[in-house]
């Protein structure tokens, strides 16, 4: 796995590089600005880019803008975005560009090495990894008359774990239920949200996006 890191905090940037190299992953470049990040992506064609949300010069949304541009230039690029705290609009902007091969984690998650590496590998393999805290805060803001109010409490639990990027087996283990039960809950979620039975992976992404966009529209 070839990785480019874009992080203006030198300590975190080098710490990430050391961690990933210790796991026998190939960190081909580390950068500290959106411009050098995009140049590195063009040059090295990595499998995954790890990008900080806030970067120079204004430390607002430069990282998100650069990540979106990198995916536009290289559609197969997996992106794992790191943020110091939940920034809902930025997460939704990225997901709106396509949730496949995309992750959004809080920086504190990096210290939980197994969770961080699991998310990285999931994103590199074509999945989605959304920080549990991001999902938790989004669900906490939902209104009673939201479309998602049609879901049962257990279905909301399942959707929250889907939003983290977990598959059926992992969801079953987290909720202490069978995979068959998870499958039934997911089918019910799709039906209640009016998602047609086309591609299963696409419907999972659509269900998560439905929630994120619904929440963004209320803030």
TrEMBL record:
Q: Which SUPFAM superfamilies match?
A: C-terminal effector domain of the bipartite response regulators, CheY-like
Its keywords, alphabetically, are: DNA-binding, Phosphoprotein, Transcription, Transcription regulation
> One GO biological process from the UniProt record?
regulation of DNA-templated transcription
List-wise, which residues carry 4-aspartylphosphate? 52
Pfam families xref list: GerE, Response_reg
Q: Where is the Response regulatory domain?
A: 2-117
Q: Which PANTHER family match?
A: TRANSCRIPTIONAL REGULATORY PROTEIN NARL-RELATED, TWO-COMPONENT RESPONSE REGULATOR
Protein name, UniProt field: LuxR family transcriptional regulator
Q: Per the UniProt entry, what species is this protein from, by scientific name? A: Micromonospora maris
């Amino acid at each position: 796995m070839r990785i480019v890191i874009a992080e203006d905090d030198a300590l975190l940037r080098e710490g990430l590089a050391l961690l990933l190299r210790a796991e026998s992953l190939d960190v081909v470049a580390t950068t500290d600005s959106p411009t050098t990040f995009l140049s590195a992506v063009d040059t090295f064609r990595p499998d995954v880019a790890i990008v900080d949300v806030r970067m120079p010069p204004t430390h607002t949304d430069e990282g998100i803008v650069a990540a979106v541009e990198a995916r536009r230039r290289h559609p197969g690029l997996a992106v794992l975005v790191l943020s110091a705290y939940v920034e809902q609009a930025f997460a939704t902007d990225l997901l709106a560009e396509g949730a496949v091969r995309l992750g959004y984690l809080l920086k504190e998650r990096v210290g939980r090495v197994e969770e961080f590496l699991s998310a990285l590998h999931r994103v590199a393999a074509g999945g989605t990894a959304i920080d549990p805290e991001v999902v938790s805060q989004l669900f906490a803001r939902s209104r009673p008359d939201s479309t998602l109010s049609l879901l049962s409490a257990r279905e909301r639990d399942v959707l929250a774990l889907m939003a983290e990027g977990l598959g059926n087996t992992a969801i079953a283990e987290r909720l202490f239920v069978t995979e068959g039960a998870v499958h039934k809950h997911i089918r019910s979620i799709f039906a209640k949200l009016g998602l047609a039975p086309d591609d299963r992976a696409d419907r999972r992404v659509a269900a998560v996006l439905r929630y994120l966009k619904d929440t963004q529209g209320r803030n």
